[in-house]
Amino acid sequence: MTSMPNVDEPTSMNEALSKGLDLLEALNARQDRSLRIPTGFEDLDVLLGGGLSPGTLTVVASRPAVGTTTLLNDFCRSAALRNNLPTFMVSYESLLADITLRVTSAEARVALHAMRRGAMTDEEWARVAKAMEKTAEAPLHIATPADWTVAQLCEQITRMHAEYRTRLVTVDGLHAVRPDIRSDTREREVTEIAQELKAVAMRLGIAVVVAARFNRQLESRPDKIPSLYTDLRDSGAVAHIADLVILLHREDVYDPESPRAGEADLIVAKHRHGPAATAVVAFQGHYGRFVDMAPAYRTPVRDLA
C-alpha cells in the first residue's frame, strides 16, 4: 500500500496530495462491500457501509430481556443462512437446544412458545421442517461453553477460522467470559477480555460481535435511553476499545402502552469508520427476531449529532 511521506522529510503540498490520493484509493479498494458481513437490517447495513467490517470488534449492549441475544442470533442468521458466510456462534447464556429452537422459530415464523409447548399445527410443523432443512445446510457452528477463559475462547475462534474460514463470530455475553489471570477489579478484567477479542479479530481479519450489559442506573433515568460511556456494566473502557458500539433500546420494555410498542432503536453510539446514528427496526418477540420495519412505517435513520 502507498504510504504517506516521512514526517521528518520536507515535501511539497503537491507531492503530499498525490500520495494522499493514492492512499485514499488503496483504502477504498480494501473497503470493498463484498468483504462486509451483512447484518440483515437494511438501514443498519447502509449506515455501516454494507455491514460489519472484517478485523473489527462490535459491542451490542442492553439491559436484560431487551434483546441482545436475539440481535446476535439475527446477525448470525443473516451471515450464515442468507449470505452463506461461515459463522461461529458462542453462547455463555443459552443451552444448545434453546439456540436451535430460537433459530428455527425465527426462520419458520412459528411462535417460540408454541414450539416449546408442543402445540404446533400441521402447517407450522411443515414450516419448521422446511426451516430445519435449510438451517442444517448453513455454514453455522455453535458452541455453548460453561467456563472458557478468554485464551480458550480465542483459541477456539482461531481453530474455527483455520478449519472453516470463519467470517463472523458472536459471543454472548462478554460478562461471562473468564479472564486468564484474575485482576483487582472486574472492569479491568473485562477490558483485557475485550482487548484480546479485538486482537483476534484483527489478526484473523474477521468480525467479532460481543453482547454486553448496561448498569442498573439506566433504569433510574426518566427516558431510559442508554449512554455510551456511563451505562456499560463493568466495562466502560470497552467503549474505547470497540470499533462499533450498538446500544439496543425498546421503549415498550419500560412502558407497555408506549406508542412505539414493537419498535426497537439500534443506537450506533460509536462508529470508528463512519457516522453515529439510530436505525429503527421491528421486534417480533414471539418469533425471537428483529426485522426491518414495513415500508409504510420506515423512518429515516436519525443522526445522533
Characterization of the model:
The protein has ten helices and ten strands. It has 305 residues and is of the alpha/beta class. The protein has a single domain, classed as Rossmann fold (3-Layer(aba) Sandwich), CATH 3.40.50. Strands 1, 2, 3, 4, 5, 6, 7, 8, 9 and 10 form a ten-stranded mixed sheet that branches. Strand 7 (263-271) and strand 8 (277-284) form a beta hairpin.
Fold topology:
Layout: H1 13-30, H2 42-47, E1 56-62, H3 68-82, E2 87-91, H4 96-108, H5 112-117, H6 122-136, E3 140-143, H7 150-164, E4 168-172, H8 186-204, E5 207-213, H9 238-241, E6 244-249, H10 251-254, E7 263-271, E8 277-284, E9 289-292, E10 302-303
Parallel strand pairs: 1-5, 1-6, 2-3, 2-4, 4-5
Antiparallel strand pairs: 6-7, 7-8, 8-9, 8-10
Helix pairs in contact: 3-4, 4-6, 7-8
> SSE string, helix = H, strand = E?
HHEHEHHHEHEHEHEHEEEE
Head-to-tail CA distance between termini: 33 Å
The backbone outline, from C-alpha atoms, is globular
Approximately how much helix is present in the residues?
25-40%
User: What is the count of structural domains?
Assistant: 1
CATH class: Alpha Beta
Number of helices: 10
Please summarize the sheet with the most strands: 10 strands, mixed
Low-confidence stretches: 1-8
User: What do we call the CATH topology?
Assistant: Rossmann fold
Radius of gyration: 21 Å
Q: Give the total of beta strands.
A: 10
Sheet-strand content, in percent, reads: 15-25%
CATH architecture: 3-Layer(aba) Sandwich
- Going by CATH, the homologous superfamily would be P-loop containing nucleotide triphosphate hydrolases
Computed structural class: alpha/beta
The residue-averaged pLDDT reads 87
